[in-house]
């Protein structure tokens, strides 16, 4: 991440995060933005330990769910960029995961924070691709790339549904 930050505040709390993304309540997986700039974001969470984490099944939280954590990091970054430009980010649909490597089987038993670093690799008006790395106590848990197609936000023409 470059030393120049697009936003005026480096740390951003959960309340602001939920104002930027469609994920609400327990489905908002990130607690805090640690730093961000035009090309990347770094976030942290303790939610992987929460018994009400909506991604849990059979009493645990599997490492494959770190892909959702990476995708939400993209959404938060897009929301921050759009907000800094005076607008709102369009909703996106995750369409592809590539090069995903999971280095653990489960994450629910990890005592410390999860930290995600996500870097915008490609950005167009209609799609984006990010690389993400998620770690715990500086040990890499998962990495990969995610692609999102952005939904149009224009209103329908008058007289058309």
End-to-end distance: 43 Å
Which whole number gives the mean pLDDT? 90
With strands numbered from the N-terminus, the spatial order across the biggest sheet is 1-2-3-5-6-7-4
Q: DSSP strand (E) fraction?
A: 25-35%
- Unreliable stretches: 2-8
The helix tally amounts to 2
Structure summary, number of beta strands: 7
Total domain count: 1
How would you sum up the global shape?
Answer: globular
Please state the structural category: alpha+beta
What's the CATH H-level superfamily name? Hotdog Thioesterase
Protein name: Phosphotransferase
Pfam family, one: ApeP-like
Organism: Novilysobacter luteus
Salient structural properties:
161 residues; alpha+beta; Thiol Ester Dehydrase, Chain A; seven-stranded antiparallel beta sheet; 7 strands; disordered N terminus; HotDog_dom_sf; ApeP-like_dehydratase
SSE topology sketch:
Elements: E1 12-13, H1 14-20, E2 32-36, E3 40-45, H2 66-84, E4 92-102, E5 114-123, E6 127-136, E7 139-150
Antiparallel strand pairs: 1-2, 2-3, 3-5, 4-7, 5-6, 6-7
InterPro entries: ApeP-like_dehydratase (IPR016776), HotDog_dom_sf (IPR029069)
Protein name: Phosphotransferase
Organism: Novilysobacter luteus
Molecular structure report:
This is Phosphotransferase. It comes from Novilysobacter luteus. InterPro entries: ApeP-like_dehydratase, HotDog_dom_sf. This protein has 161 residues and is α+β, with helices and mostly antiparallel strands. It has one domain: Thiol Ester Dehydrase, Chain A (Roll), CATH 3.10.129.10. It contains two helices and seven strands. A seven-stranded antiparallel beta sheet has the order 1-2-3-5-6-7-4. The chain is globular, with a radius of gyration of 16 Å. The relative contact order is 0.19. The N terminus is likely disordered.
């Amino acid at each position: 991440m470059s030393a120049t930050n697009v936003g005026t505040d480096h740390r951003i709390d959960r309340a602001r995060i939920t104002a930027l993304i469609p994920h609400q309540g327990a489905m908002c997986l990130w607690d805090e933005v640690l730093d961000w700039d035009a090309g990347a974001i770094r976030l942290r969470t303790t939610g992987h330990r929460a018994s009400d984490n909506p991604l849990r099944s059979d009493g645990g939280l599997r490492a494959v769910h770190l892909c959702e954590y990476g995708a939400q990091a993209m959404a938060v970054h897009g929301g921050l960029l759009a907000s800094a430009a005076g607008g709102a980010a369009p909703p996106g649909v995750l369409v592809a995961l590539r090069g995903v490597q999971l280095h653990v089987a489960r994450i629910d038993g990890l005592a410390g924070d999860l930290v995600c670093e996500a870097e915008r690799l490609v950005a167009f008006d209609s799609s984006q691709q990010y690389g993400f790395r998620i770690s715990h106590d500086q040990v890499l848990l998962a990495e990969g790339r995610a692609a999102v197609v952005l939904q149009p936000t224009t209103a329908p023409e008058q007289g058309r549904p």
